[in-house]
Design goal:
By secondary structure, the protein is α+β, with helices and mostly antiparallel strands. About 35% of the residues lie in helices and about 25% in strands.
């Protein structure tokens, strides 16, 4: 079984792609710190280049079938 990497930074001529897999056990503070560090690394390696953030989210769905507060905060904050 192939597993996804938790984080990844890839660059081409146009932009840098930042990827993070948000695990079910991650809270907002954990995810925010990871994303902050990824953006910081990206800026250091690829200064001023356009950045695209991609998130895959495991769990974090409330009883109504929508993202919980943790994921909504991440989506709106980043």
């Amino acid at each position: 079984m192939k597993t996804k990497e938790q984080t990844k930074i890839e660059s081409d001529d146009r932009a840098v792609a930042i990827y993070h897999l948000v695990y079910e056990h991650e809270g907002f503070e954990d995810t925010a710190q990871i994303l902050f560090n990824l953006v910081k690394q990206t800026q250091q390696k690829h200064p001023e280049k356009k950045r695209n953030l991609y998130l895959d989210i495991e769990g974090h769905i409330d009883d109504d079938g929508v993202f919980d507060t943790t994921c909504l905060n991440c989506k709106t904050s980043f």
